[in-house]
Amino acid sequence: QEWRFVVEETQGQVQYEYAQEFADLVDEKSGGALDIDVYEFGALGSEVDQVEQLTQGIVEFAIISPGFTGTLVPEGNIFALQFLFTDDQETNQEILNESEAINEQLVPLYEEQGILPLAFWTEGAMQWTGNSPLQTPDDFQGFQMRTQESPLILESYEAYGANPTAMSWGELYTGLQQGAVDGQENPIFFIADANFNEVQDYMTISNHNMYVTMTTVNPDFYNGLDEEVQQIIDESVEEMRERGFEIQEEQNNEFLSQIEDDEDNPTEITELSEEERDAFRELALPVRDYFRENGGDQAEEILDTLEQEIEDMSGEDIG
Ligand code: 6CS
């Protein structure tokens, strides 16, 4: 019996490394009886295709970013809200681990759609890259921004004055190279490993949001498993919480210098000051109300709970 685990990234990248270590843990804990095969991105289609493969049970496990489930589970758009979480990834991971809004209110909405999230985790703070500098909302006027599929990500960039377009990352390098889009957002490890810096001249350390992803299983598959097997899976997910954090942290630290040192493809790197971030934050705040009204029946309750949790756990005023 072989189970399939599909991820949205390629070998060496954070999700793939996570899935491989997870598979090793499950193998070890079951004395070799449980075998999980990891499929890298591209083998089974686009990110959105992979969501469908999980809901249909064609794959048992998947790493799915909420950015690709925006029309299926509107409340999952919550992670598209910029400047909502804190600037400290460790605090953010703790909130993802412990939040009731996420783990008790949001999870059942995913499960109803055939996706059972077992863990929510960060792949690091996201940064902007562009073929022109991105330092003020003015710079986004008419800017063709590539985003993931979620309506609220598009809404967030429209609030800055940009013209966002959703596309798979499989098309993104060529899209940037040929000028179909002007820029994109991602954590540093991904920008470097996917070589987007080769086809972008500017990178802004904006920390406007963290990249959130989910370790998921097909609910029918999981609920049909023996209790001991479920326990092995659950324990492995728990052990991977810390490892997942370490993997992304290492890669995000290590890859910054790769972008800085690439003399053949120079990238001008700037960092937003707190004042510059405030200008974006101000435009991002009303998008929370848009989410409350358009993010599905439970959007308001979930966001109210989450805002309170973030404030309680970080001791910060988040607006
Ligand atoms: O930009 C994207 O769509 C991709 N970024 C990351 C960090 N992982 C997979 C995802 O598809």
From TrEMBL:
Keyword annotations of the record: Signal, Transport
Compositional bias annotation for Acidic residues: 298-315
GO cellular component: outer membrane-bounded periplasmic space
Domain of life: Bacteria
GO biological process: transmembrane transport
Family, as annotated: Belongs to the bacterial solute-binding protein 7 family.
Name of the protein described by the UniProt record: C4-dicarboxylate ABC transporter
Origin species: Alkalicoccus saliphilus
Lineage: Bacteria, Bacillati, Bacillota, Bacilli, Bacillales
Full-sequence portion shown in this chain: 51 to 369 of 398
